[in-house]
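Moderator note: this is an archived Q&A kept for reference. The question asked for a predicted structure of one protein chain; the sequence and the answer are reproduced below.
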Amino acid sequence: MIVDVAAEDAELLARFYRELYLPEFATQREPLDAWQAALAGDQPYRMFLRLAVDGDDIVGGVTYELYPRSECGLITYVVVAPRARGAGLGKQLVLGPAYALSALGARYVFGEMNDPRLRGGWERIERFQRWGCRVVDARYVQPALGPGLQRDRGLLLIAHPPYFADGVDGAVLRAFIGELYEVTERCAPDEELRGILDGISDHVALVELARQ
């Protein structure tokens, strides 16, 4: 069963965070209180949490966000419990929110993924590409997601369906990345961020990666 979690569902939120999210994303973790505030509408973006539940067990989940100024969506974390893998749940948890964000007005729906050319893990990017996702052909650095965490320079930005086959409007991409940094790091753009934004062309291609 698929369940959309509201801010008042504190127990479900905490269980997903503890049981599935932390074991999978310990090095990239966001604070639980930041999620609680976002689900309650106390952040400058909208956050959503969708869970797959089997009886009393949470077997999968996805968090996703809508950024109002740039009008872009971001699928932030997707995790499926080991016992529930291989049956199509991951694809359902990715594509459902992607189309939901588009229906809410998102011009593009992005996601983040380890760059397999730097970190390995080709199976994951190949799986997402089979689902219709494509890599945004521009330099990307993930902002620091919480106190004590560092920016992640080993990630790719991907575009989820539905997307425009001819690529991404560079002005929209710059607006989205700038907005993402503003709400996460809460500080003025530094030299690295300015370099990232300046390096985005007016038209950014969507590409498919292949093993060499």
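Archived answer notes: The domain at 2-207 is CATH 3.40.630.30 (Aminopeptidase).
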